[in-house]
Amino acid sequence: MEGGNSPNLQLQQLPLATAAVSVQPHTDSFSYKENLIGALLAIFGHLVISIALNLQKYSHIRLAGSKDPRAYFKTKTWWCGLFLLVLGELGVFSSYAFAPLSLIVPLSAVSVIASAIIGIIFIKEKWKPKDFLRRYVLSFVGCGLAIVGTYLLITFGPNSHEKMTGENITRHLVSWPFLLYMLVEIIIFCLLLYFYKEKNANYIVVILLLVALLGSMTVVTVKAVAGMIVVSIQGNLQLDYPIFYIMLVCMIATATFQATFLAQASQLYDSSQIASIGYILSTTAAITAGATFYLDFTGEDILHICMFALGCLIAFLGVFLITRNRKKSVPFEPYISMDAMPGMQNMHDKGIAVQPDLKASFSYGALENNDNMPEIYTPATLPIVQEQHGSKGVSAPPYRVLEHSKKE
Fold first, then answer.
1. Any alpha helices (H) in 294-332, and if so which ranges?
2. How many CB atoms lie within 10 A of CB 33?
3. N or C: which end of the chain has fewer CB within 10 A?
4. Origin, by domain of life (predicted)?
5. Which region among 140-154, 230-244, 328-342 has the lowest average model confidence (pLDDT)?
6. What is the pTM of this model?
7. Which residues contact 102 (CB under 8 A, 6 or more apart)?
8. Rounded to whole angstroms, how far apart are CA atoms 103 and 392?
9. Which residues 6+ apart lie within 8 Å of 195 measured at CB?
């Protein structure tokens, strides 16, 4: 009986084994397709966001440089930028539902690349052809490195996919690796917040670390909310799970506090420093959170992980070079009151007449650096002459004003 039954058992098990083998390549190809869809949506979203922000900036600059009394929100350019901004945010939001979190987050370098290129071509200061290479060589090198890093990220990114159902998200939420990660993150966040609020540690690294820790939770919740919405659209309703609304509330709260800390950082530091340091810290924290919560790198070999890390480092270097080449804005600081001098320009309609800052180049909101200003407006120097005592006891005046030509 046993010998007669064994061939039947083998025949019955053969189709099952064949089916199991044939499913794995199909799953791999489908997962790579999802990675590509998510990466393309993220690239499209960040590109559109960059265009939208530059359009809105262009609208503000045009209104500031003209006599148009309209407000900025009454112009078509500003509303076009707002529409593109919403479209880009929807693209980035939907990309989290298709690709792993660790793959989507570093692709925000695309917005930095696009802003650098648009800033050079579309909204640029006046430059001479001989100075173009010297001024923008770092930007082009940074763009090239960021593009290479983005290619490595897409090629060697994690390939883990699972349905964002309520059961899966709840299981990840109560897993011990994520609970341990949350405990460490809460402790670090509280310590940084204490030093920032109580000890006045207004360092840029402290503020952007707070932003990065909040941002890591934001992207975790964004992926959960976006994934559950996509699964619900596909026919398996997930909106009746309480975890969906918990993730939605956490997403809104962390994004709001993140924007608050970013606003405080922008008041203290230059935007180029915030862009470069913030991108590096936020991307590192988000990849760590994705690897802990969603187990993005489970089953990946060492080669893919190393190449993915190399792509991140190259993208970091590219963003650093792009933002390093941005010219820091020099605020106008009046240093002498010129109420008594006629003919001087006024900063405001009801302001005090002040002397222009000759060291500042023309920028939005500052006076123009005019090299052909009249000689009367050139700051004069008073050379000090030491007092000399003669043999007859006659002393010279402590100082005298010497006449200088414009060449001197």
1. 302-324
2. 11
3. N
4. Eukaryota
5. 328-342
6. 0.69
7. 157, 158, 286, 287, 290, 291, 296, 297, 308
8. 88
9. 201, 206
DSSP code for 207: H
H-type alpha helices, 65-128: 76-95, 101-104, 109-121
Contacts of 398 (CB under 8 A, 6+ apart): 385, 387
| H helix intervals, 105-175 | 109-121, 129-155, 166-173
pLDDT above 90: residue 347: no
Give pLDDT, residue 322.
85
Query: Which of 48-62, 191-205, 218-232 is predicted with the least confidence, judged by mean pLDDT?
Result: 48-62
* Rounded Cα gap, residues 316 and 311, in angstroms: 9
Mean pLDDT of 145-173: 88
Query: How far is 335 from 29, CA to CA, in rounded Å?
Result: 66
Task: For the chain, give percent helix, strand, coil, nearest 5.
Answer: 65, 0, 30
Residues 338 and 361: their CA atoms lie apart, in Å, by 21
List residues bridging with 353 in a β-sheet: 346
Asked whether the beta carbons of 268 and 154 are under 8 A apart, the reply is: no
220 pLDDT above the threshold of 50:
yes
Radius of gyration of the chain (CA): 30
How does DSSP classify residue 294? S
What token pair was written down for 358?
């000759």
SS3 at position 213: helix
Q: What are phi and psi of 337, to 5 degrees?
A: -85, 135
393 vs 202: CA distance, rounded Å = 59
Residue 314: closest CA among 207, 322, 300? 322
Contact 386, 396 (CB under 8 A): no
Q: What is the mean pLDDT of residues 15-42?
A: 59
The rounded distance, in Å, linking the Cα atoms of 276 and 142 is 12
**Separation between Cα atoms, residue 282 and residue 207, nearest integer Å:** 12
Single-letter code of the amino acid located at 370:
N
Nearest to 113 by CA among 158, 205, 49: 49
pLDDT above 50: residue 278: yes
Angstrom distance (rounded) from CA 189 to CA 213? 7
Tokens encoding 182: 């949350």
**pLDDT of the residue at 79:** 87
- Residue range 103-114, pLDDT digits in tens: 899 998 888 888
Q: Hunting for tokens 């979190």 — which residue is that?
A: 101
Contact 239, 232 (CB under 8 A): yes
